[in-house]
Amino acid sequence: MSELNELLHAAQKIVFLTGAGVSTASGIPDYRSKNGLYSTGGSPEYLLSHNCLVNEPEKHYEFVKNNMIHPEAKPNIIHEKMAALTRNNKADIITQNVDGLHLAAGVNAQHLVEFHGNIHYIYCQKCGHTVSLEDYLTSMYHKDCGGILRTDIVLYEEAIDTQKVEKAVTAISQADLLVVVGTSFVVYPFASLIQYASPDTKMVAVNRDAITLPPQGKMITGDAVKEFEQVEV
Ligand SMILES: [Zn+2]
């Protein structure tokens, strides 16, 4: 039995904290990584900022449309194994990813926090109505009222929804095992969530590159897909 599998089986209440590395195997590039996507017209951090949405909505729209939306992407083995553990009420998932793939994998939604939102939820900033992804991909303007559409993701300079923060903090404070997967853990406030774990909570990270962990943390450096292939649910 793999080390990760042993830890998962020994745990009563698991919290997975997931990032872009979980979705690269589904063909979604990590815009923060060296091999991730690049775009003309500014840094991803600017193009995905509230400031850009307000002052240069066309640039923001083009970046989101061309780089952030992947309707063809399918969940991979990591999403699937995690989803099965949520259906057993054994795990919660707190994700930085906005691609909706944890939901698509059949997660028990009660056990999922999409910390930065979901890019498939689109609404009009003027009238508040929701519109389909197809409508958004056709135009950045709401066809009914002319307002500018936006996705429900949390942009740079925007606050995380309080209810999501509370749900994440509650899950982490009750966990006896935290599993960090596919994130270099540099994005705040996401990375600061682990401070709410109790002192005897075990922690393990699975990532392509080693990341900085608290003293009780265990690092598994390697391909998360290979690790989760060995997980028995
Ligand atoms: Zn509207």
Write the layout of secondary structure elements.
Blueprint: H1 3-10, E1 14-18, H2 44-47, H3 50-55, H4 57-68, H5 77-87, E2 91-95, H6 101-104, E3 112-114, E4 122-124, E5 130-131, H7 133-138, E6 149-151, H8 162-174, E7 177-181, E8 202-207, E9 217-221, H9 224-229
Parallel strand pairs: 1-2, 1-7, 2-3, 7-8, 8-9
Antiparallel strand pairs: 4-5, 4-6
This protein binds zinc ion.
Could you describe the largest sheet, including whether it forms a barrel?
A: 6 strands, parallel
Radius of gyration in whole Å, from Cα? 18 Å
Low-confidence stretches: none
CATH topology of the largest domain: Rossmann fold
The largest beta-sheet arranges its strands as: 3-2-1-7-8-9
CATH superfamily of the largest domain: TPP-binding domain
Binding site for Zn(2+): 124, 127, 142, 145
Keywords: Metal-binding, NAD, Transferase, Zinc
InterPro entries: DHS-like_NAD/FAD-binding_dom, NAD-dep_sirtuin_deacylases, Sirtuin, Sirtuin_cat_small_dom_sf, Ssirtuin_cat_dom
Enzyme class: transferase
